[in-house]
Structure formats: C-alpha cells, structure tokens
Amino acid sequence: MSKSMQIKSWANLLRNAFCVYVFPQGVRVLAASVFITNECNLNCIMCSIGRMKSKESMSLSKVDKIFKELKREGVMNIVLVGGEPTLHKNFKEIVEMAAAYGFSISMSTNGIFLNKIGKDTLKKFSEISVSLDSIKHYEQIRGKPFFEQVDKGIRRLKTLGIRTNVMMVVQKLNYNEIEDVIAYCKKLDLGLRLETVVITDLNPFVTSNKKIAYYDADSVIQRTKELSIKYPQTIINKTSFLSQLSQKKSSRCNSCVWPLRSIQVWVNGDLISCCGFYPKMLGNIFEKGLHKIRKDNMRYFISILNGKGACKDCSFYLTKKQYAISNISVFLKIPFDYVNSKIRNSQCKI
C-alpha cells in the first residue's frame, strides 16, 4: 500500500469510528467482498456451496462494472471470494483489474491451486487467507484429500513474502485439534482465525446440519484462553471468536455495525448486508448502483446499529464500541485485545 493510500485509509478509519456514534449516515464503506464465482472444487461438510446445482461466474465486464462502482463510493479494500475464487477462468485478469483500480486486494481460498498461480499475480495480494480446518481429519471435513497440496501452497506464499492467515472453522470433528493447527501456524509464522459453524436455512453458503456443530462451547472457551496465553501472537481474532462462542448462549438482538461498514456482492450482483450468514438482499448493484442502494436501506442499517434489527442469535455481530476500538487499534498499530483491555467495561471484553 502506498503512503498516500495508507494515510487515506487511516483517515477513513478514524472518521468512521467517530461517525458511528454521532452521524451513522456518514460511515463509509471501506471494504467489499466480491463473490466472483460460486463454483467450488471441495465438498465441505459445514458448507453447502459445493452442493449447489447452479454454477455461475461473473463475466469480466460485470467485474469491471462492480469495481468502478466500488471505487466511485470510496471502497479501498477488495476481498475476492467464492465458491473458490481461483477457479474463475479469468482469475489473473480480475486480480490485475483490481490492482489497476488501486484496491488493496485480499482473497479467501481453499489453497488447492496456490502452486499453479503465477507469482506476479500472487504478489498483487496484500493478504491471503487459506481455509485449513484440520490436519488429521482434513479429508473428512473437506471431502477430498488435498492437505499436502494446500500445505505446499501455504509454504509458497510464505516464500514469496505474502501475508498469510489460516482460517479454521471449529466443529465437532476438529475442536480437539485447535492446538495442532496453532502449532502448525506457529511453525510457519502464520496468523490463525478461529470461526464457529453457522447454522441457518437462510443462506445456501452455510450448513443447516446442527450435528456438525456440536461441541462443548464452555470447554472450547477455556481451552482457547489457555492456548492464547501459550501462543500469544498466533490467534489473531481471539476476542471475536470467544464472543461468538459466548453469544451462542444468548438470544438478544445486538447492536451491529456490519451493514454500514462493509458489503458483499454476490455472483449475480445482489448486495447483501453484513457477513452474509443472516443475509438481507439490499438490491442489485447492476440495476441501482451502490450509492442508491445504501440510501434506500439507511433506515434498516441504523435499526441494526441500534440493536433493533432481525439478527437475533447472530454470533458475528460487531458493536459500535468494538468497531471504534478496532479502528483505533489499526491506526495505532496496537493489537485489538490490548486496546480493548485498556477501556473499562468494554462490551467485547471477555
């Protein structure tokens, strides 16, 4: 990221941290996840997308229209997602296009094709997150025996000097393996994001099978706290993960900033609020444009911000206080958990 872009990013972070309290309409969308395809080459037990009958990928012209719209509205960070984004036949061209628009580019991938992508393409990414839920039970969870291939891909990213994180969805088959995955990440100097299984019938991308998610949340909370002390720099989202686990025992509606601060664009151009697990279709970016869609839905966004929305039982909420602390921690280059611990009675303190 260039110096001027970094300064602009910091300014927007601080601006949003202020606006979220005094003028929510002024919060800018800084990040967008773009589902460039819904095709996937795995069949993960906690995700339904591999079993979707309709396979669709965005054309280059549509991707270009989306990027133009996002750039016009001040979006700075693009995350390429799917499906599996590397399956898109024009993946290289899409990455080059995003770089030409000046976006900071990230990707969420299963890592299978990381060894087949050119290094010049990979070096355009500021960060790549690779899904790795298990070492011992990889095939049982992911449906195919690709662990060694993914491992080689991760090691290649590190060799190229690309910031790399691992994402682990904690579930019945792997909750006793958290330390094994942490040790793997520690050895390769990777960050680890722990996530919970999402159970909902509202979204085709996640599971409706409650048996997959069963585990003792209290024991996982305690174990995660112990491991975060043993491996202090490895779990990069400890606070939010523990909040997700704790929230599973609650039934309240929460104040949430997600719909205001980021968006997701599905493969057909539909915009959805928040992280997509409890999605509300806001409109189609090809038909209305981002500015008009946000204006039309601002009352909904503010109702969610004030804890009056329909996201009951959602464990991925982001409160105003959490959001402000997160932005300040990024600006000061201080870990979120440290900043959070210095603010008394923080809602997100575990």
Descriptive keywords:
single chain; 350 residues; alpha/beta; nine-stranded mixed sheet; 15 helices; 41% helix; disordered C terminus
In summary, what is this structure?
The protein is an alpha/beta fold.
Describe the structure.
This protein has 350 residues and is of the alpha/beta class. The chain is 41% helix and 13% strand. It contains 15 helices and nine strands. Strands 6-5-4-3-2-1-7-8-9 form a nine-stranded mixed sheet. It is globular, with a radius of gyration of 19 Å.
Quote the average pLDDT: 82
Helical/strand content category: alpha/beta
Strand order of the largest sheet: 6-5-4-3-2-1-7-8-9
Largest sheet: 9 strands, mixed
In DSSP terms (H or I, runs of 4 or more residues), the helix count works out at 15
Q: What portion of residues belong to β-strands?
A: 5-15%
The strand count comes to 9
Shape: globular
Proportion in helices: 40-55%
Distance between the termini: 33 Å
Which regions contain 5 or more consecutive residues with pLDDT less than 50? 200-204, 336-350
